[in-house]
Amino acid sequence: MDVTIRKPTERECEECGRREVWNDTTGTWRVAVGDDRRVGEVYCIHEWDINGTFVPVESDGDGVDA
Ligand SMILES: [Zn+2]
Fold this sequence. Notes:
This protein is 0% helix and 27% strand. It is an all-beta fold. It has one domain (3-52). The strands form two sheets. The chain has a three-stranded antiparallel sheet with strand order 2-3-4, with no helix packed on it. A two-stranded antiparallel sheet has the order 1-5. A hairpin with a 4-residue loop joins strand 3 (19-23) and strand 4 (28-31). The model has no long low-confidence stretch (mean pLDDT 80). Zinc ion is lined by residues 13, 15-16, 18, 40-41, 44, 46.
């Protein structure tokens, strides 16, 4: 059974449109740079589009070894 650990590498605020990308080196989220740069609202509480729906472990098997 193959198990793939997935990590989000980018996220976007559904409220203000802020875009951030994951920096593996520092282990922190950074505001996207370049053409995608969108800082968003400073006072926004940020509703990230990955919240609640992101599944970190994906399995292509139809059963779980117990
Ligand atoms: Zn926001």
